[in-house]
Amino acid sequence: MKKQLLLLSVLLLMVSSVFPQSRKYVSQFSHLQQYYNPGLAAYEGSMIRGFVRNQWMGWEGAPKTYFISAELDFGQLAGETDPGLLGKNATSLSLHHDTFGAFMESELILGYASRIRLTKTANLRLGAGINYNTVRLDGNNLNTEQASDPTVGRYLGSFAHMEILDFNLGMALTHKNYYLSYAVHHVNGGKLNRGDVFMDGKVPSGIFQGGYRNKVKDNLALAANLMWRTQADLPENVEFNFKVLLMDRMWVGAGHRVSYANSFQLGFVFGEMRMGYIYEIPMTDSYLLPNTTHEFMLTYSLFKGGTQMIW
């Protein structure tokens, strides 16, 4: 019983008294660039990506995240092979599913990106995405504090369902060795919605991403990535990671989410396929549950040569 009360308290810290403005964490954010910024669709070529995150493993009702996406570069269909020039026209489709506590959320994003060539090696990418979001509330799983909330409390013992249509915009400066990007999610603030209104739309969020990678030797490469997220009703989120790629076959690395968690990663490359694993440990002063978090990632390049050095 004490464990359940502790979990509910932590969830309340994450989402206040209701669901509306939760934040989804992904330690392997550098492998999911197109999800955060539609302008980075097919930046690494045409790919299929899958991802699972099991947060605070061992606690009933703890957050679980599932993700799958597909990216298609039209230049690769026409035979283009130069990684630095891919992305003149690209599209992506992402499905993100998240559950925790009494809430279950699914997000479907259809994105389009176009590349403008600036120099022989650098490009400007612009992208837009249509974001369809569904949120389901199970009133049977509301905790005591949520049940007393006038917004969601009226659904105690029943179910509620809400649908939101919104838009994402993004732009990025890209090179085969680095990228800088900025995107805005939920540009319209979730004002286009229907169903049971148990949340006040979606507050727009800004997402900056940057990364650098380079080969030091034939069998040794380095990569570093940074993500910074801002949202009016939530604290700033800053996280970064560092990887070492060995013999183009395996990578090891570490990451840090400022004031929240540290992570360690391991990955393998098998031709057009790569697999990654993250072991995340919350920091003692972050007020999160002490249990660890596990992430599993799998990507597959649809064309040979599409998978480049690891970000």
CATH class value: Mainly Beta
Any idea what the CATH architecture is? Beta Barrel
Q: How would the global form be characterised? A: globular
- Would you report the number of β strands? 15
Number of domains in the coordinates?
Answer: 1
SS-derived structural category: mainly beta
Strand content is: over 45%
**Biggest sheet: strand arrangement:** 1-2-3-4-5-6-7-9-10-11-12-13-14-15
Query: What characterizes the major β-sheet?
Result: 14 strands, antiparallel, barrel
Cα(first) to Cα(last) distance is 43 Å
And the CATH topology? Porin
Poorly predicted sequence stretches spanning 5 or more consecutive residues: 1-21
Encode the helix/strand succession as letters: HHEEHEEEHEEEEEEEEEE
What's the number of helices? 4
CATH homologous superfamily designation = monomeric porin ompg
Instruction: Please state the average pLDDT score.
Output: 85
Helix content: under 10%
Key terms:
311 residues; mainly beta; Porin; 14-stranded antiparallel barrel; 4 helices; globular; disordered N terminus
Written overview of the protein:
Strand 13 and strand 14 form a beta hairpin. It contains 4 helices and 15 strands. The protein has helices spanning 2-15, 33-36, 74-77, 144-147; strands at 47-54, 64-73, 89-100, 103-117, 123-138, 159-174, 178-185, 192-195, 205-217, 220-231, 234-246, 250-257, 261-270, 273-282, 293-301. A 14-stranded antiparallel β-barrel has the order 1-2-3-4-5-6-7-9-10-11-12-13-14-15. The protein has one domain: monomeric porin ompg (Porin). Mean pLDDT is 85; it is low at 1-21. The chain is globular, with a radius of gyration of 20 Å. The termini are far apart. The chain is mainly β and 311 residues long.
